[in-house]
Amino acid sequence: MSNHVVDTPMEQDKTSVMITTRLTPEEVVDHRTKSPPRDIEKYPRYDRVEVVFGRIGSSSNVTGYGVMYDYNVGDIVRVHHAGTCDRRSKRRISEMEYWFAKVEEIYVLDDGRESEKPKIWLNVRWFYRAEDMKGYDSSVAKRMKTRELLDSDEKDYITFTSVEGVVDVAHIDEGSGTYEETKDGEDPSMGFFTRWRLEVRTRAGRGTRLVVVGVSLQDACECTCEGCPDQGYDDAAEQRYCDACENWMHVACLRRVAKKVSVEKVKTLFKEGWVDEEMMRSLTRPIARGGVHPTFGNGNEVMKVRQAWKMKKSGVEVGDWDEGVNMYTLWPEDEEVECFRCPQCKKQWV
């Protein structure tokens, strides 16, 4: 959520709208479940809504405006519910107590007018926390991290008054060795992230059920080694990624089925006169996740170093090759390196 003090309202265009209210954000919050108007789709729909709180002065003599919040289609927002709106309690609400949802559509029912409580409806797609999953699939809940969210196809209408700010959520594609960077450039493993998706499926006469789909526990995140005893990703077990055949494999399995490759052998792949000791050390680090590596793994850092090497090799001027590379995420300095030949493609080292 972005918020700032404004002196005059912005001009309204076809994709955004500004609403003003004399109330403060705290006075507007309302978690109570409401039903949207039956003809809601007839109302104006916008990509962005800006709400100015705490208007000062009368409609004929405006002396200033207070704090402005804005929300956009595509934003992932915190949502208040009964457990977060006890006005008698003064305790601080932890982040994971909120519900989370992605804004799909924005409907404004009091377009362009001053309102005591803005009549704005959001069509959202829900995310599930580990706490929410305990009653549906405990095996999935146990594998989820504290700030992990499961995307879903479950949609609902909520009022603007139940929303409390925007959060940045990174996405992990478990079939890939790299991951999506966060908007603010911070370490995604320290914030919210999502890697699995839920579908709500209806069974005749038996109601609905939630199903983990896409890259799930038993799909591309499983180890591809034959006879692997642990078919599923566990942060405690280190895995390696082959970017040639796009497979993840447990280091424990590689020790059993793959041929070892010495670090000295790997160095010959990058032997150029201008490669110094520090760059060579970085180039010989495989893509890994789990164990001493975070949930996201080190794929992004590894690829930054390899890209810098490719650019220098092709004659492109490169400044500091390690600029923007998190060396600890790439590989902890005191951690030994074991390399293997991929047992799947028989070509790439991992």
UniProtKB/TrEMBL annotation:
PROSITE patterns the UniProt entry points to: BAH
Signal peptide location: none
Annotated BAH domain residues: 69-209
InterPro entries linked: BAH_dom, BAH_sf, Znf_FYVE_PHD
Molecular function (Gene Ontology), one example: chromatin binding
Pfam families: BAH
PANTHER family found in the cross-reference section: OS08G0421900 PROTEIN
Name assigned to this protein: BAH domain-containing protein
Native source organism of the sequence: Boletus edulis BED1
